[in-house]
Amino acid sequence: MPSKNEVKTYVENSYYHLYNRGVEKRNIFLDQQDSSTFLSYLKDYLLPKNEKELRARLANPKIDYKEKDKILRLLRLNNFSDNLMLLAYCLMDNHFHFLVYQTLANTIQKFMNSLCTRYSMYFNKKYQRVGPLFQGIYKAVLINTEEQLLHLSRYIHIQAMSLEGNPLKIPKPSSYPNYLGKISQEWVKQETILGYFQTTKISFRGTSSAIDSYRSFVEEYKEEIPEIAHLVLD
User: Fold this and answer.
1) Could you tell me the residue ranges of all domains in the chain?
2) Contact, 96 vs 89, CB < 8 A?
3) Residues whose CB falls within 8 Å of the CB of residue 175, separated by 6 or more in sequence, listed in order
4) What are phi and psi of 200, to 5 degrees?
């Protein structure tokens, strides 16, 4: 019998929760370089590729072979900026979570295959290991309601802030700082979720701005949400 959320239904113009963990639940982010590399791959895939600029740089006769090779690899790299939007993410030690929106039915499959294969090659080369890095095929679950969408974004950000078993008390890498206005990663599209927390829509605990209202929603909401139980990691 397939494991939870292993059987996928791909629908165009739909939201999804995507996640995967290391094989045998092993850690897949061992240091800051690993998480930074993974995030740089997300940036490559999700920001529009400026092919005109890349080809202009390639035509420069003074370019060295290392830079030329880098540009050629970027030109060959898949790009999903037109068909995939990343709303939220977090990177835990042995797994990751994405909240995405796809416009074409086959985009997620291509995106996840590209990302996981590329990161596995990086990880195995760095740590001199062979074999699969991830525990089978990534999991994907379709989000059907606005309530599920909002609470799943909260779930993802709460995971990143959980300090239990974390002696350094440092939150894990996540999109949450984008939502709080502390950083700006162009490839994270927090506006969709924050749009629900404008004062004309949702004002959580009487807060006055979308950012403050969302922060209160994430950090102060205490009720269990059975509607998302089937959407999350076992």
Assistant:
1) 14-138
2) yes
3) 86, 87, 88, 89, 90, 156, 157, 185, 188, 190
4) -80, -10
Q: Give the C-alpha separation, 136 to 3, whole Å.
A: 10
d(CA 41, CA 53): 19
| Topology annotation, domain 14-138 | Alpha-Beta Plaits (3.30.70)
Q: Which residues of 135-166 are buried (b: 16+ CB within 10 A; e: fewer)?
A: beebbbbebeeeebbbbbbbbbbbbbeeeeee
Tens-digit pLDDT string for the chain (234 aa): 456 556 578 999 999 999 999 999 999 999 999 999 999 999 999 999 877 787 787 888 888 878 888 878 888 888 999 999 999 999 999 999 999 999 999 999 999 999 999 999 999 999 999 999 999 899 999 999 999 999 999 999 999 988 665 656 789 999 999 999 999 999 999 999 999 997 555 555 555 689 999 999 999 887 767 667 777 766
- First-to-last CA distance in the chain? 15
**Rounded CA separation 138/96 (Å):** 10
Residue 220, class by beta-carbon neighbours within 10 Å (0-12 exposed, 13-18 middle, 19+ buried)? exposed
The distance of Cα 73 from the centroid of its chain, to the nearest Å, equals 22
Among candidate residues 223, 149, 127, 134, the one with its CA nearest the CA of residue 193 = 149
- How far is Cα 62 from Cα 5, in angstroms, rounded to an integer? 51
Token pair for 14: 């739909």
Which residue is it, tokens 């880098």?
70
